[in-house]
Amino acid sequence: MKRILFMLIACTGLFTAARAQQDYHPSAENLQARQDFQDRKFGMFIHWGIYSILGSGEWVMHNQDIPYADYSRLASCFYPSAFDAKAWVALAKSAGMKYITITSRHHDGFSMFDTRASDYNIVKATPWHKDPLKMLADECHRQGIKLFFYYSLLDWGRPDYAFGKPIVDGKPQGADWDHYIAFMKQQLTELLTNYGPVAGIWFDGEWERKDADWHLDEIYALIHKLQPAAMIGNNHHHAPRSGEDFQMFEKDLPGNNSHGWNSGGVSALPLETCETMNGAWGFNIHDDNYKTVRQLVHYLVGDAGRNANFLLNIGPMSSGAIQPEFRDTLKALGEWMQQYGETVYGTRAGFLSPQPWGVTTQKNGKQFIHVLEYPDGGILFIPAVRQEIASAVDFATGKPVKYKQMPEGVFFYLQDVPRAAYDNVITVTLSGKTLKVPPRSKWIMNEK
Ligand code: GLC
């Protein structure tokens, strides 16, 4: 009996550790923002910090065991002479991206914005003395791009976080955890007060302390109070909690769990995949494993066909310049989006669930069949299509696509259609009729 009681108490502790925003009812502005977010479909993730100087990714302090005091000296070397907010926003736009999510403070604890909560920030601790987030926010507002702030819950350096200390009763042992929570609230208040409308906060790092009491109920309520439309997402890899407005999938399409950490299923909230151009988030000179344009188009379209957004990362150099490999790829993606944007922006998942060869999206009564893997011999067979197809047209040329629909499925004949580089899109309209499968007695069968 005692044991059961103990287990119950322990479990309650676990469930309340992160604590969701109780009784959360998203505001009308928030629900509207969710729709707008889903319509935007394609965003730019930016990982930029004093770690960019070392060119070994944003985990360099931790991975190379650099003591905090030594690492923090990087701040005095950070002078991004090539930083140009206008050019960053223009780059995102030219790639067809409709929002930006930028690191305001990463796990290294360095604040990339003007904050009164800590002197360890870009305005006070670097010789540059400027606030890039302010410049970026102003530019985003000018150019019609939404801006999200990434915010790390984890901090490798602050004594009140006490990285590495065991968690007892929801707090790190021997540390002033309440002080840390108050610090985060102060910073988030600044972020949601000094930068105009903020599209949302992208939390990360909670996974480092599963048993800590993060006071997320208060933090989420604070954000929603300051800006009701601001969307909250938390990259904790579990099913979303009350108070969260979108669900993210790190380096995975929704529902996949390629790395063993995306275990939260797929919720009814807006969805977002985040992915790197090579394998690194922060600028990394050791990683030239760049994804191809084809892979990225397939990722973006694969997400759209699963009702999800695609947030593609760049890690600018410490100077603020963006390496040519990223720029070239973004240019190619932008050209593709110029031509095919109609089949992605503002769409929702289409009439067919994701298939081995591609996905479908839909908008304004049109279904877009994205054939990502060209079928053998140019004949695509889709089994068990019950909705009657009224017309089929090649999106790129506007020419009719031959098809034959039978109770068993539909054949599309693509032999006369020019083969697209990444994605043959067939625009289909449905008549609204549902086809019945004929009774088994009517099947022509070759059985004894
Ligand atoms: C992981 C990494 C972090 C990165 C994030 C982006 O949480 O720890 O460095 O910012 O993924 O999704």
From TrEMBL:
<keyword id="KW-0732">Signal</keyword>
<feature type="signal peptide">
    <location>
        <begin position="1"/>
        <end position="20"/>
    </location>
</feature>
<comment type="similarity">
    <text>Belongs to the glycosyl hydrolase 29 family.</text>
</comment>
<comment type="function">
    <text>Alpha-L-fucosidase is responsible for hydrolyzing the alpha-1,6-linked fucose joined to the reducing-end N-acetylglucosamine of the carbohydrate moieties of glycoproteins.</text>
</comment>
<keyword id="KW-0378">Hydrolase</keyword>
<dbReference type="InterPro" id="IPR017853">
    <property type="entry name" value="GH"/>
</dbReference>
<dbReference type="Pfam" id="PF01120">
    <property type="entry name" value="Alpha_L_fucos"/>
</dbReference>
<keyword id="KW-0326">Glycosidase</keyword>
<protein>
    <recommendedName>
        <fullName>alpha-L-fucosidase</fullName>
        <ecNumber>3.2.1.51</ecNumber>
    </recommendedName>
</protein>
<dbReference type="InterPro" id="IPR016286">
    <property type="entry name" value="FUC_metazoa-typ"/>
</dbReference>
<dbReference type="InterPro" id="IPR057739">
    <property type="entry name" value="Glyco_hydro_29_N"/>
</dbReference>
<feature type="domain" description="Glycoside hydrolase family 29 N-terminal">
    <location>
        <begin position="17"/>
        <end position="342"/>
    </location>
</feature>
<dbReference type="InterPro" id="IPR000933">
    <property type="entry name" value="Glyco_hydro_29"/>
</dbReference>
